[in-house]
Amino acid sequence: MTLYTSTVVTPRRRSRVWAKFGESTAFALGLPILLLVIWGVWATLAPEKFFPSPIEIAQAFVQTWIGPAFVSDVLPSLARLAVGIILSIVIGIGAGLVIGLTRWLRELLEPVFEFFRAVPPPVLIPIVAALLGSNDVMKVVVIVAGAVWPVLLNTIEGVRATDSVMTETARSFALTRGERLRHLVLPSASPRIMAGVRQCLSIALILMVISEMFYSSAGLGFRIVYFQRNYLIADMWSGIVLLGLIGILLAVIFGFVERRVLRWYHGIKEVEHA
Amino acid sequence: MPDTLLTVEHLRKVYEASTGDVEAIGDISFTMAAGELVCIVGPSGCGKTTLLKCIAGLLRPTSGSIELRGHAVTGPPPNMALVFQEYGRSLYPWLTVRGNVELPLKHKKLSRDERDRLIDDALTAVGLDHAGKAYPWQLSGGMQQRVAIARAVAYQPEVLIMDEPFAAVDAQTRADLEDLVRALHRDRGMSILFVTHDIDESVYLGERVIVLSKSPTWVQEDLTIDLAPERDQITTRAQPRFTELRTHVYEQIQRAKRGEALRPTA
């Protein structure tokens, strides 16, 4: 005989946590799912050659990208993107530190930088291709030539904004140049640097695609243009979806790194707003 | 013959500006013996911070000399530590409390154990042995200033220089921190040069109070504080001798403000 079955207390806390989780997931996925449904219904009711239904695109996605094309087109594109991003960050931070710490260099270079930053990077493609030929190096150079600027200029600004009292503290404790760079200048500039890296990622992705649209015979950008010229519309859309997914992946990796590097910075913001 | 630690001789500092030169410090001379706690007090804007920065080797004097243990100070000397007024800008927010205290020790050639012992000892001395893993911005203002003091203590300087360190904390915290400075001086024999604009604080803390004139600055009076070394916020401040001394310093500051005191002819 079980007499007290009705007195079992449900763990409310836990159910509330799950409700909260479900709620935020519903919010995050709700609109995309709704849009997909509308799109799917629309595409079935009024078929239109240039806007295939999401199911067709999903089928094209599986057929096109899962298989040999992943090795011949996607991986090389991702490799060039990765090399381009890493070079942009390394060159941007390295040169930014030197220029930010050297007053005369900064005054000499800043007007020139404003000009280069203002030049839309895709116009460099014909010139770089003429100089280097159409190869991986050309594509990486194009990515770096466009994506390095936000990192470089933000690093310079961040280094310049190092607090004077913090600098005097480091001097009074006779920290060496290297120690000051590593323990003071770099961390203090890191919020600005990370803001630059965030911009760098999206510019690099754009330039990866564009650099492959010209003088190319492989890669994501080439494939998308190829599908479009051959009226393979669902395949073209599947390429665009893949680009979007790569963009999200970059954002997720960035978010993970940023939370670790700038934990102190977000902590201060939280304390200030509390 | 006292053991001379710091000698400041005919120090003069002129700031060159486009609108004309500004003479911040006219002519300052004084000496400080090892193990002393000397307070420097003066009217606001009298160049106290300029004087400290010159002594700390952060600012080059226009003329005159500063010697620490017989060596001329031309850059920040390795046997000196500074505590700034702006604790929020002198601690590094990306390092933990422990990391902040450890940083200046990194290039001192110490073993891991020795370094850890110094850090633990310094944090215990300021009463923060439980907060090593916290970040400075998680602490109150008074606790942050304790971290800055711990960092200076762990550095094992021959002289500790404090630039209005308690000007930005509330009165109760301030009293606690004053007693902490007294304790460091008494228990560890630390030599401390303490700059303040607070007359009561200078008399309560110091064994000597150097009163500065208004800018261009010189030493208006060098006063020995003949209070007992054991000091207490309540009883010491209630002593008639304390009141006499603080009234005396107060009058000197008033004279300095009015520019009545005569500049000594060199």
Describe this protein with a few key phrases.
heterodimer, A: 274 residues, mainly alpha, MetI-like fold, 2 domains, 11 helices, B: 266 residues, alpha/beta, Rossmann fold, ten-stranded mixed β-sheet, 9 helices, 10 strands, 35% helix
Give me the secondary-structure topology.
The complex is a heterodimer of chains A (274) and B (266).
Chain A: H1 12-45, H2 54-65, H3 68-101, H4 103-118, H5 124-132, H6 136-160, H7 164-172, H8 177-213, H9 220-229, H10 233-261, H11 263-273
Chain B: E1 4-15, E2 22-33, E3 37-41, H1 48-55, E4 63-68, E5 71-72, E6 80-83, H2 87-90, H3 97-102, H4 112-125, H5 141-154, E7 159-163, H6 171-188, E8 191-196, H7 199-205, E9 208-212, E10 217-224, H8 235-238, H9 240-258
Helix pairs in contact in B: 4-5, 7-9
Q: Could you characterize the architecture of this molecule?
A:
The complex is a heterodimer of chains A (274) and B (266). Chain A has 274 residues and is mainly alpha-helical. Chain A has two domains: 13-45; 54-273, Orthogonal Bundle (MetI-like fold). Helices cover 82% and strands 0% of the residues of chain A. Chain A has helices spanning 12-45, 54-65, 68-101, 103-118, 124-132, 136-160, 164-172, 177-213, 220-229, 233-261, 263-273. In chain A, helix 5 crosses helix 6 (136-160) and helix 9 packs antiparallel against helix 10 (233-261). Residues 1-9 of chain A have low confidence and may be disordered. By secondary structure, chain B is an alpha/beta fold. Helix content of chain B is 35%, strand content 24%. Chain B contains nine helices and ten strands. Chain B has a ten-stranded mixed beta sheet with strand order 5-4-1-2-10-9-3-8-7-6, sandwiched between helices. In chain B, helix 4 packs across helix 5 (141-154) and helix 7 crosses helix 9. The longest helix of chain B has 19 residues, at 240-258. Chain B starts with a strand and ends in an 8-residue tail after the last helix. The mean pLDDT of chain B is 89. Classes of the chains: A mainly alpha (274), B alpha/beta (266). The interface between A and B is medium-sized, with 22 and 28 residues.
